[in-house]
Amino acid sequence: MADLDVVVAGAGFAGIYAVHALRSAGLSVRAFEAGSGVGGTWFWNCYPGARCDVESKDYSYSFSPELEQEWSWSERYPAQPEVLRYLNHVADRFGLWPDIQLGTRVTAAVWDGERAEWLVQTDDGQQRTARFFVSAVGCLSAHQVPALPGLQTFAGPWYHTGQWPKEGADFAGRRVGLIGTGSTGIQVAPEIAAVAGHLYVFQRTANFAVPNRNKPVDPDWEHAFKAGYREYRQHARESFLGVPIAGTGRPALAEPPAQVQANLAQKWRDGGGMPFLGAYTDVLVDRAANDIVAEFMRDRIRETVADPDVAELLCPRAFPVGAKRLCQSDDYFAMFNRPNVTLVDIRSAPIDSVWPGGLRTRAGDYELDALVFATGFDAMSGALNRIDIRGVGGEPLTEKWAAGPRAYLGVAAAGFPNMFIVTGPGSPSVLSNMVVSIEQHVEWIRECIGYVLAGGYCAVEAKPSAEDAWMGHVTEVAYSTLFPLADSWYIGANIPGKPRVFTPYLGGVGPYRARCDAVASADYEGFVLSS
Ligand code: N01
Fold first, then answer.
1. Which atom of ligand 1 is nearest to the CA of 489?
2. Mean pLDDT of 139-147
């Protein structure tokens, strides 16, 4: 008999809720978390300026009406320390600590078909058996540092934002080089510029950013909002993005241009990426509509950045707006008006190497005291691939995913019985409000495990044909949009050699939930249940 019903890998938003939900269903559960605290992404990404780009009222658990009434967020968009406080509060409030082992990384998980259980190994030498293995390792947790020649010789400190030191980094008066201008780079840059002697932003691809218009949460507004929280959460579950947004519901191309401009200007004044991109129905599917929005945004850069050459270099042109994650910032573009900030174009003159005193590009040398990599993650599959996971017949997951990650409904991989992946490849995950998608997956997994146990089955496994059909559908939906036109991490383009497969599901959170529920109602159609 296995030691445990379920081993959970990771204790971020997904792992924390998995422990609570599975334990509440009467299962014995143990979560292993590599960090010395809970929080996952929100534990590791503690760089200055880290802030969520989904509003706090949305980016929070809905499973407990009491929790959502008791907890008060201080800002519209929560900063990383507040999200981490919230997650610690959840762990306290629901007494989850006894079932979470911190500072322990899952290193291997091997399916034993004879015993119908997983043998899970951790880096402290433990071996635990469990009937089910749930991955809650996150979509953006395997950070990636580019292989720059000479990096080891650099005389100063260097950091990756996804592994930021808890004690912080001191940039006061220093010459700092920042590589990466995605959501992270755009957040951290103004914070560094405010204290550094000089900040050099090494830009390979210019990026779009909308204002946050972050503000404190007004207590009267909060009181009124919380009165209708349950109904609001239900709308979120049924919505496309996991956040109810008020768009026009019309295509931009069907509206008079002046009205489109006025509408975009209003969204711009309101702040926030989802409402801005969701203003019109055709922005992410029709290049002509997308161009209107992109040009609107380039105009905002031109009117913000004083030096016209710098402004032009900051104007994104390489991909449709929204096809890479839309960044949010109130101060990134204005930062380039500071005398201590220089934008360096590494598209035309790429980085050659690092030398002890700084960074060498094809156009010249930059003397630096510190380097910051905001260069992203081996997303969606990287963290799982770093665990030695072996399924039926000892097949490694890395081998199964050699041509790209795949899973039936984005939650279960054929050949890997009794293993579930929270927000896995082929689910809405990163293209939705993660918390809504995490809750949906965890609850679906809980019901599936309950079904297996109640039916006296020993294993549940996705059929290869169901997985193939699902991934075909994921691809078909993706290629009906503009998303594949960007070299994004959604498609694996940011990792040299990674197969180009569009991984998140773009069919919408509400329809996806309905599909998952229908599969469950049809006795787990597409799965094999074995006794
Ligand atoms: O990573 P990214 P991120 N040489 O992969 C550049 C979430 N998130 O950490 O575009 C030079 O998006 C790369 O350049 P290019 C959010 O979902 C959310 O910023 O490949 N440059 C790019 O500029 C987000 O999408 C929040 O040409 C190199 C950057 O590094 C996801 O996390 C905040 C390079 C990487 O951008 C990841 O965001 C932060 C190289 N060798 C993150 N390699 C919020 O909620 C990479 N780059 C607000």
1. 5
2. 95
